[in-house]
Amino acid sequence: MAGLLSKERIVAGAEFNRWLIAPAALGIHLCIGSVYAWSLFNPALIKRIGVVTSAADDWSLKSVVWIFTVAIVFLGLAAALAGKWLEQVGPRHVGVVAACAWGGGFMVGGCGILADQLWLVYLGYGVIGGCGLGLGYVSPVSTLIRWFPDRRGMATGIAIMGFGGGAMLGKPMIDGFLRLFYRAPDYLGTIGEVELVTEAGRRMAMIGNDLREVVVVGANDVAQMIVAGPEGVYLAGTGSVGAAQTFFALGGIYFVVMIIAAFSYRVPAADWQPPGWQPPSAEDEQRSMITTHDVDIDEALKTPQFYQLWIVLCFNVTAGIGVLAVAKTMMSEIFGTTLPDTVDVEFAATYVLMISLFNMLGRFFWASASDYLGRRRTYLIFFSLGIALYCSIPYFAAEVSADPAVVWLVGFYAATMLIFTMYGGGFATIPAYLADIFGTRYVGGIHGRLLTAWSTAGVLGPLAITTLRENAVTRAISDLSSKIDPQVFQATFGANISQLEALVAARTVTISKLMEIVPAGVPDPTPHLYNQTMYLMAFLLFIALIANALMKPVHPRHHLQTRG
Length: 564
Prior knowledge:
Layout: H1 2-5, H2 21-32, H3 42-45, H4 61-81, H5 83-89, H6 91-114, H7 118-147, H8 152-181, E1 187-189, E2 196-199, E3 202-207, E4 210-217, E5 232-235, H9 243-262, H10 282-288, H11 297-300, H12 304-325, H13 327-335, H14 345-373, H15 375-402, H16 406-438, H17 443-450, H18 452-482, H19 486-493, H20 500-505, H21 511-515, H22 531-549
Antiparallel strand pairs: 1-5, 2-3, 3-4, 4-5
Helix pairs in contact: 2-7, 2-8, 2-9, 4-7, 4-17, 4-18, 5-6, 5-17, 6-7, 6-9, 7-8, 7-17, 8-9, 8-14, 8-16, 12-16, 12-18, 12-22, 13-14, 14-15, 14-16, 15-16, 15-22, 16-17
């Protein structure tokens, strides 16, 4: 097996068509890129017990989003640690290990869901699957750059386009499997037909001789159900969201596809170059900042350029990845309450699909455009335009609250789609930027080290968006509760308003449930839950803008003396 996977075994012959590498790269990246569809699992995982709505013991959105964060952290760590190993053993060996880790991570995560052990989901999808992400991500990039030294941006765009489009492949499969394995919980009747009591913030009902926990679906909750059902009272702990079975099915599919792709890899001979192509001259190097020299992996870490690019990647990713982690939830919360007839569960899921589409198209378009614009100028466009677009999102949220018109939804949709073309474009252009600055010889290993910026962003983005959202929710619930007649509150929730903290902790009281009993004219705060986050992201892009503007060629003292 070691010989079958060795780097020497996959050196291509002189007549090999370099374009055949593209399908293999796309195959790997389409599979691991399904991580961008993680938000499709959020509604199911936070309703694992309640099924139709969250029960008291269900996992919180914040704890579920952190699974995605852990996966991204281990993506960067695995890529950084495996950089030199990739150069030694070759992309086929790394691709096979990636297939085992990514597919196996889904299997372990599915067992965690079945066993009600959140730590197992973190270990499976987050740690093991995250390592598979990192190994699968770097394995085709350096290979394609070596095959396309004349079109570096386009080459990396081809490889990383698949990662951006992974959610397009994952979305119909995830939605289809969740619906296939979904089983509704036991329906007890309308809220008027079931006698409810509240104990320690939980809603309870007498079933036979036992007091059992139930969940209550109100008018505002119906649109957020995984599969539509009637309003009323459901027995918690019955039914299934189908998440575990979906994990098992996806793990098997991704493993098979990635193994086939890994065995399709080939690398060029050491002295190979495209027919008719000549490396750039010293004059071209100075003008375009495309070097004719190579920098060793360890030496690259001694240059300011590495850390400037680290900031560029980190803050560009931070600005987008937090939104990706909660994309479906954010769309539902900003527009689901103001335009409920338009923005339902399926619309929000399709929004995730469109993010994937524009993310994918942006990776190819911007990376290819950077071959003509130059990398530094391309990132200048990303950050300048991105600042304005992130600041526009709170504006659209405010306008749709005041005037529930579809035009504000269209504006939001267009702004976020453009944001995600540049988010994906940033990923696809960074390997070519690295090759321009540090040369192609060790670009795979240097790229792996740089992906620690992605790990950092994987923490900063979701942490910022979930923490700021959670704080906004707490303030909103407190403000709404103060406007409600205490007798109405008591009659609705079976407990005094003084028990608000326990009721919120048990998910008995939510913004949507409070909005059903507030006095007429009180605005819904839900569309504004993400305002602070958007302004923070715009500020981070400004810092990245400065780091990119200060980029210069690497000092000659860091260059290797010979090329080979």
